[in-house]
Amino acid sequence: MTNAALVLEDGRVFRGEAYGATGVSLGEVVFSTAMTGYQETLTDPSYHRQIVVQTAPQIGNTGWNDEDDESTKIWVAGYVVRDPARTPSNWRSKRGLDEELANQGVVGIAGLDTRTLTRHIREQGAMRAGVFSGAELTDDASMVEQVKASAQMVGANLAVDVTTDKPYVVEAIGEKKFTVAALDLGIKSNTPRMMAARGIEVHVLPLTSTFEDILATSPDGLFLSNGPGDPATQDHAIALTREALGRKLPLFGICFGNQILGRAVGRGTYKMRYGHRGINIPVIDVTTGKVAITSQNHGFALEGTPGEEFSSEFGRAVLSHYCPNDGTVEGVRLLDAPAFSVQYHPEAAAGPHDAAPLFDDFVTMMNEAR
């Protein structure tokens, strides 16, 4: 057994044993309340430069397969679990979770009290941290200083790290009904699949694309994906969004895309105390009062009051959804232009699926625009 430590910037140190690769990983420590779907969590680009703590005590039961990745690699900076499975058991499993973490160089830690750690993050807020093991495990003071010297999440432009290098197309399943240009801010693999199942041909475009590149796809709509980092850094994506709104091109955004649309219509964003991460988070639609259980992963949010109507240069808009746990704004809808967004994941795998019909709403919006 190799010793390991999770070191927080406030000086708190949690001891455990190495899990996955050994070495050092630095990032923002956050917790996820999901009880399943760890493979999708690990490969979600929105977790870039974050050390993820799983609140569910036992992780790794179903091993690692070659079908459920949400991107081409594991994006988390580090991984923290309490009780890793000794032996995976699932008919699709190809190898153990610890083996895959080691294969991809992800430094993790196991065997620590994740309940105490989660309560600490809830009370003190998400903060910079480091996982140290092997030769990198030194004295506490040195490790704390290393953590304090690492980059902050506020002001971090991370979408540029995770966006696709070149455009690619996901073909519609069955008859092609629409073409959508999807701006890749950290898109998950299931998103184009969900649209393709509705007859949408999806052109996934790099973040650096121009509006002319978007128009070159002859789009019926523009999609803004999820992604990591501070939305205040995304001047280019915000400018593209404003161009689309000005042309009344139907627009749908999720997660990071919700923050981009919000900023495009004049709302501010702020860093949350510890964010929302998990697959069991309630959201209320202010128009219908309907509650959806959602998958979320965000540490920033839009400013405003749920249900608030406001004016923008693109017409009236409303803050359309909120989380009843803390009142966080979870959606924006323009009332005079074909655009809406939500802070959660309607494409969620391993679920829940309450919000999947939002893709149908996007289809309806594109139909009406025609």
UniProtKB/TrEMBL annotation:
InterPro entries in the cross-refs: Anth_synth/Amidotransfase, CarbamoylP_synth_ssu, CarbamoylP_synth_ssu_N, CarbP_synth_ssu_N_sf, Class_I_gatase-like, CPSase_GATase1, GATASE
GO terms of biological process kind: 'de novo' pyrimidine nucleobase biosynthetic process; 'de novo' UMP biosynthetic process; glutamine metabolic process; L-arginine biosynthetic process
CPSase as annotated region, ranges: 1-178
Residues that hold L-glutamine according to the record: S46, G227, G229, F256, Q259, N297, G299, F300
Keywords: Amino-acid biosynthesis, Arginine biosynthesis, ATP-binding, Glutamine amidotransferase, Ligase, Nucleotide-binding, Pyrimidine biosynthesis
Top EC class of this enzyme: ligase
Sequence ranges assigned to domain Carbamoyl-phosphate synthase small subunit N-terminal in this UniProt record: 2-132
Residues the record marks as active site: C255, H345, E347
PROSITE patterns xrefs: GATASE_TYPE_1
Family assignment from sequence similarity: Belongs to the CarA family.
Protein name, as recorded: Carbamoyl phosphate synthase small chain
Originating species: Lentzea guizhouensis
